[in-house]
Amino acid sequence: MRTALLQSSGRPGSVVENLKVLDEATGRAAAAGAGLLVAPEMFLTGYAIGDDIARLAEPADGDSADAIAEIATRHGVAVAYGYPEREGESVFNSAQLISADGTRLANYRKTHLFGCFERDHFTPGEQPVVQAELGGLRVGLMICYDVEFPENVRAHALAGTDLLLVPTAQMHPFQFVAESVVPVRAFENQMYVAYVNRVGQEGEFEFVGLSTLAGPDGVARARAGRGEELVLADADPGFLTASREANPYLKDRRPGFYGSLI
């Protein structure tokens, strides 16, 4: 499945403008033959927008979800995007996957909140593995800091995730995560990992870009630079099957030894 990574910070604070950016990028992805577009963490509203996070938060089935479903349907491309999700008095840092026919396939709430900023504005999610079937692949969702915990990604591997989507707001000086950690996670768990970042200065944060689609061989199929960019690469089920047959990591595990980890 050809996958488009939208590396952009959009227009922080403006849902209307970010929907326009997403619409234009989805059109370009469709023209390039993509079946899926992935946007960064909190793309719908912006990340470093303070109390506007709570003001702009929407339910998973809110107006913006409907607008993105229309974008996906019109272009014939599935869309995954980050947004602040409101449920009652709680606000979650969430990511949602909508199919090319406009169906809401999966919604994930970030389980590992990073730093005081996120802990001040969000409630942590409680469901570690969220998946959906898309284009012949089992697709999982995770957000930014979550992927830095090996147990998190291994849980997806054991649940059969083929392509892990990771909308991200990864900042300086942690660019080694995009450069090194993500390809290793893909290799040690025998899956594709699409890690899609914001760019540039936003409030106190400097986002470093470097979005990538890493394969189960640990090789980046696509790698963005430090600016706004749309990059594309393929998640190939046939290559994934062959890689899993050749790599014994998951078969050679001895879970009885790992009880002390929890």
From TrEMBL:
GO MF annotations in UniProt: hydrolase activity
Record InterPro entries: C-N_Hydrolase, C-N_Hydrolase_sf, RamA-like, UPF0012_CS
SUPFAM superfamilies named in the record: Carbon-nitrogen hydrolase
Keyword rRNA-binding: no
Keywords: Hydrolase
Family of the protein in this entry: Belongs to the carbon-nitrogen hydrolase superfamily. NIT1/NIT2 family.
CDD domains recorded: R-amidase_like
Name of the protein: Carbon-nitrogen hydrolase family protein
A Pfam family: CN_hydrolase
PANTHER family named among the record's database cross-references: DEAMINATED GLUTATHIONE AMIDASE (PTHR23088:SF27), NITRILASE-RELATED (PTHR23088)
Domain spans labelled CN hydrolase: 1-237
